[in-house]
TrEMBL record:
Gene3D superfamilies: 3.40.50.2300. It comes from Bacillus norwichensis. The lineage of its organism: Bacteria, Bacillati, Bacillota, Bacilli, Bacillales. It comes from the Bacteria. It catalyses: O-phospho-L-tyrosyl-[protein] + H2O = L-tyrosyl-[protein] + phosphate. Belongs to the low molecular weight phosphotyrosine protein phosphatase family. This is protein-tyrosine-phosphatase. It holds the Pfam family LMWPc. Keywords: Hydrolase, Protein phosphatase. CDD domains: LMWPTP (cd16343). Coiled coil: none annotated. Residues 2-147 form the Phosphotyrosine protein phosphatase I domain. Its EC number is 3.1.3.48.
């Protein structure tokens, strides 16, 4: 089983969106037995909460299942548990390194570094633009899934 963990700051906007979109892609390709996904935040403010309503609304608009999305905090144990630890922006990558004590490990990836864009996924908690977030995460997840399939 290949295990993927998406990480953002609060685990209520971007990383649960990535978890749901990736799960949807995996189910459509009939790969649920081969690849699992989860998400976590580097911060603790929203532990136990469902996603932001902007994230839920956007996922529902695209018919992406939102079940089971509950915020949790990243822990140092996650580094050993997961094969891909995928941050949304540069500050997530720095925080992942602080929490796990691991830096420059190839399993820690910024999502859009896999695409031509090579940039941060802007935080819709501050921008309010959940469509931009959806489009970028969707593109990143498609490229990530292709990468995983090649290495499977
Ligand atoms: P996320 O967005 O990292 O995409 O989940 C945020 C959600 C909450 C906060 C910051 C960013 N916050 O400061 O509570």
């Amino acid at each position: 089983m290949v295990k993927v963990l998406f990480v953002c700051l609060g685990n209520i906007c971007r990383s649960p969106m990535a978890e749901a979109i990736m799960r949807d892609l995996i189910e459509k390709e009939d790969l649920s037995k081969n690849i699992s996904v989860d998400s976590a935040g580097t911060g603790s403010w929203h532990i136990g909460e469902p996603p932001h309503k902007g994230t839920l609304k956007k996922l529902e608009e695209y018919d992406v299942n939102t079940k089971g999305l509950i915020a949790r905090q990243l822990s140092s144990k996650d580094f050993d548990e997961y094969d891909y630890i995928v941050g949304m922006d540069e500050s997530n990558i720095r925080n992942i390194s602080k929490i796990t004590g691991q830096s420059n490990d190839p399993k820690i990836i910024r999502l859009l570094d896999l695409t031509d864009a090579k940039k941060d996924v802007p935080d819709p908690y501050y921008t309010g633009d959940f469509q931009e977030t959806y489009d970028l995460i969707s593109e990143g997840c498609q490229v990530l899934l292709e990468r995983i399939k090649v290495n499977m």
